[in-house]
């Protein structure tokens, strides 16, 4: 019997021997907390721009306005992420598979973006040095990192991104297995209902049973013996 790759990698357990449903709930709550903290920081920065904006004479007024617009967009994205993570948590808890799909699509999109970052580093390795030059002077170990060989620096960055991609792929598989578990749970409940109510399903409709003419009663006992 041939086993499909999806069935071969399917498992109902994830890290720390948790069930995939429990792992998806924990992951959704964790993402909600992170985005809630980011949203709180952004709203605080928008409410007090004098304290959190960059005070530099080189920044023009249009850049300050653009900075406010970017913060508003980031706040909207954080709010949307809280909604998507809440839907995934609710869907895993209440066994609603459709509520898990938006969070799964976000994971695929995030994995694709990180993969593009890794590909861009391989194609354009000098972008790492350009990024290091844009960092502030008080950034920790900036001079030591910039003094490394370019090939060694690219290898370290790619190794770090590969670990992140592997971890993200594992989380994607956990959410996908949770989605399959919820789908299978709903299908098994429907089959169980049909199996336990098979006599009701096999009965003919009421109109057909009424239309059947009644059978003739048997003859009396005395007539049959005579």
SSE layout:
Blueprint: H1 5-8, E1 13-14, E2 18-19, H2 20-47, H3 49-52, H4 61-94, H5 101-123, H6 127-134, H7 142-146, H8 150-196, H9 198-202, H10 206-211, H11 221-225
Antiparallel strand pairs: 1-2
Name the features.
mainly alpha, single chain, two-stranded antiparallel sheet, 75% helix
The total strand number stands at: 2
Give the termini separation. 68 Å
Q: What radius of gyration results from the CA coordinates?
A: 31 Å
Shape: elongated
Task: Give a brief outline of the structure.
The protein is mostly helical and 226 residues long. The protein contains 11 helices and 2 strands.
Characterise this structure.
The chain is mainly α. The protein contains eleven helices and two strands, in the order H-E-E-H-H-H-H-H-H-H-H-H-H. 75% of the residues lie in helices and 2% in strands. Strands 1-2 form a two-stranded antiparallel ribbon. Strand 1 (13-14) and strand 2 form a beta hairpin. Helix 2 (20-47) packs antiparallel against helix 4 (61-94) and helix 5 (101-123) runs antiparallel to helix 8. The radius of gyration is 31 Å and the shape is elongated. The model is unreliable at 54-66 and 189-203 (pLDDT under 50).
């Amino acid at each position: 019997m041939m086993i499909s790759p999806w069935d071969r990698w399917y498992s109902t357990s994830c890290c720390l021997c948790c069930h995939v449903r429990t792992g998806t709930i924990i992951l959704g709550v964790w993402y909600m907390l992170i985005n809630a903290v980011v949203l709180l920081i952004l709203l605080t920065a928008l409410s007090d721009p004098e304290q959190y904006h960059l005070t530099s004479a080189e920044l023009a007024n249009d850049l300050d306005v653009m900075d406010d617009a970017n913060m508003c967009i980031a706040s909207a994205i954080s709010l949307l992420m809280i909604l998507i993570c809440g839907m995934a948590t609710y869907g895993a808890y209440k066994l609603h598979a459709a509520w898990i799909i938006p969070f799964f699509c976000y994971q695929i999109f995030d994995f694709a973006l990180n993969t593009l970052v890794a590909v861009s580093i391989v194609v354009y390795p000098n972008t790492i040095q350009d990024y290091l030059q844009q960092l502030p002077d008080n950034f920790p170990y900036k001079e030591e990192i910039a003094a490394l060989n370019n090939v060694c620096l690219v290898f370290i960055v790619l190794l770090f991104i590969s670990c992140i991609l592997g971890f993200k792929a594992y989380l994607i598989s956990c959410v996908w297995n949770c989605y399959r578990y919820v789908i299978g749970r709903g299908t098994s409940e429907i089959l169980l209902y049909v199996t336990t109510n098979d006599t009701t399903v096999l009965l003919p409709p009421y109109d057909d049973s009424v239309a059947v003419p009644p059978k003739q009663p048997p003859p009396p006992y005395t007539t049959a013996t005579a």
